[in-house]
Amino acid sequence: MSSRGAAAPAGAGRPEPESEVSAPAQRPATESAGLSPVLLEDLRRLLTAWLAHEPGARSGEDPEELHHLRVTARRLNASLGLFKQQLPPSLERARRTAKSMLRAFGATRDLDVQIAGLAAWSAGLSEEERAALTPLADLLARERRRAHARMVRGLDSESARRWVETLVDVSARAVPRGN
Prior knowledge:
Blueprint: H1 37-59, H2 63-82, H3 89-122, H4 127-132, H5 134-156, H6 158-171
């Protein structure tokens, strides 16, 4: 579903979070052929972190979940960038999607930081001074809800779903350490 349509249910089309990414059944290894084992292992580790933090970032209840998801997306983008000469087309597209998602995460995270900063700063103010900041706090909260809704639509977009599926498929071929 496109990001302009109605939002899909949380987690729709996504694998369930697990401690390890499981290998897809009977898929050809063409996507991972020639990729560095270091990149494949890193993709697996980062995808596991992504799947652990995405539900919390979607819910919006704990700003730290979005922070962790954003850090994971930045690390995924960096890993893909380090190996960009080796990437098959699907992973090149995945890198572009990561950058788009980072922008959406950044807008929401920036508002989380502003809201927390305002709350910490206003804690030392008088009741009257805090009341004067209420319109600003309300504005930040409204903007944060809008940014979060855009972020969730981005996570539900077809390109984001393909991105996660591609990373699952490719990273599932990583050889765990010790094997």
